[in-house]
Amino acid sequence: MIFNDRASWIKPFTTRRYKAQFLMAKFTPHQREFHTLAFIAEGQFNIRYRERSHIVNSGDSILIPAGEIYSFETMNDLNSIVYFHYIDTVEMYRYSKDQLIPDIENLIVTKRFTAAISKFLFSNIESEINKVHYEELLLNLLNGLNTALKNRKKFSYELVKSLIHARNCIADNMFLNFNLEDLSAKCKVDKWSLSRNFKLLFGVSLFSYIHACRIVKAKELLSNQCPIAEVAFECKYADQSHFTRFFKRFVGITPSQWIKLVKSV
Q: Which CATH architecture has domain 10-148?
């Protein structure tokens, strides 16, 4: 895997958008705890999603739902540029008037529904995001997807409140031993309902979300030049091999590769 050394691999903006440059890049199957909106500015990618290959070209935009396992690689040896915007699952739910994202079998179906919001977000990635317009576009995105895919499942306010409380409890205590019974009691919801509906709202299971939170912390430590073995210990993994397995699951590359990317920024 080769990344372009002539410029930053990924440049984050305060406006919650990212510009990434790839050259002969390949990311192994992984999942994220948020929805990913991607716009291909230059190049061509092969995205492996639900055992199918999806080819996306320059000018295409797609939405990858939280929790979905996917991999991607560039299709040629030319420099490729992608813009990313990460959408929090609760933010998506609230702005779309309590709609859940539908089950998406084919990523290509998202292209026509993401075109408007991609144009709004990526025309000038350094500009501030107009919140009112942003909320309208998220609503239109979910309305379009749910109408096309015939999904209208919603949760009650009380259930969503309990699920968000559970997510916050996990994030605040990511290094403690996880106990479903204690968490369900604290959130005042049946443990089976908590386990099942947590994944429907957030895209990942309770167990996966714990590790997603730990990997976010691990990336921060690695970016600050902490040794991999030390990061594994700090993030409560049994050993470096165990840590690397979970890191690849949520990032798509190894910790060593991540460190190289950070150094190129």
A: Sandwich (2.60)
